[in-house]
Amino acid sequence: MFMAKILISPSRYVQGAGEMKKLGTYAAGYGKKALILISPGGYKRIGAEIEESFKDADCGLSFDYFNGECSKNEIDRISGIMKEKGCDLMIGIGGGKIFDTAKAVAFYNHTPVIICPTIASTDAPCSALSVIYTDDGVFEEYLFLPANPNMVMMDTDIIAKSPVRLTVSGVPLPERSREPAFSSLPQEKRCDIVCGRKDDGSRNGACRAVLQHADGRRRQGENSA
User: Fold this and answer.
1) Distance, CA of 115 to CA of 103 (rounded, Å)
2) What is the Cα–Cα distance from 225 to 220, expressed in whole angstroms?
3) What dihedral angle (degrees, nearest 10) is formed by the CA atoms of 155, 160, 161, 162?
4) 3-state SS assignment for residue 111
5) Per-residue pLDDT, 185
6) Inter-residue contact 211 to 177 (CB < 8 Å)
7) Fewest CB within 10 A of the end CB: N or C in the chain?
């Protein structure tokens, strides 16, 4: 008997350098006024770029700062702001808990949701799930959603500037990193095998960080055995 292969994914996925400059244009395809959930630090870094993208777009926008936890109280608070400001589109920009909150708010308010990662350490952007915590950060429950986000937009320029430790934490350990013949090779050689080289011939620094992380995890496993 053959097993069915099923792909469940966002309705639209966009990835490329400078895509945040087009966010307003993308948003106009889903609603007339967007509520953007973002951290204060995120707004400081890219808020002006986001606002510029909406200048000539047929979609208004309003910002609100995330309070730090994807809790029922935070979901209710953001839902109230959506109604108060007449927003018909939810946009989450940042990391996992912002995305889970944005997805939950969109679900309860029957609106589309756009997710814009600024780090690459989590699968929250594409999942049909919100992890709900208490206001104090204690796990409470899973909210299973009927659909994945309407759109995920990843600006690789922004991802490239995020902390390497966050990128590393989002990369599964390569199976080959556990093989003795592979792990005994010099790290530079393993970088070439796993990631190749950049156009200018230089090695990929992020790849090196991933392999260092893998080495640490492997040694940890050997020491605990």
Assistant:
1) 8
2) 9
3) 90
4) coil
5) 57
6) yes
7) N
Residue type at 2?
F
Nearest to 12 by CA among 148, 156, 159, 158: 148
Is the predicted pLDDT of residue 196 greater than 60, yes or no? no
Pairing of strands 113-117, 139-144: unpaired
Amino acid at 224: S
Chain Cα centroid distance, residue 206:
18
Contact 69, 139 (CB under 8 A): no
Of 5-14, 73-82, 187-196, which range is least confident?
187-196
Residue 191 tokens, joined = 């970088």
In this prediction the pTM is 0.75
Distance between CA atoms of residues 112 and 131, nearest Å: 19
Q: Output the pLDDT for position 126.
A: 86
Measured CA to CA in angstroms, residue 40 lies from 23, 58, 80 at distances of 19, 26, 20
SS3 label, residue 133: strand
End-to-end CA distance of the chain: give it in Å, rounded: 39
DSSP label at 15? Answer: E
Q: How far apart are CA 24 and CA 59, in angstroms?
A: 7
**Crossing angle between the packed helical segments 187-195 and 205-224, to the nearest 10 degrees:** 120
Confidence of residue 223 (pLDDT cuts 50, 70, 90): low
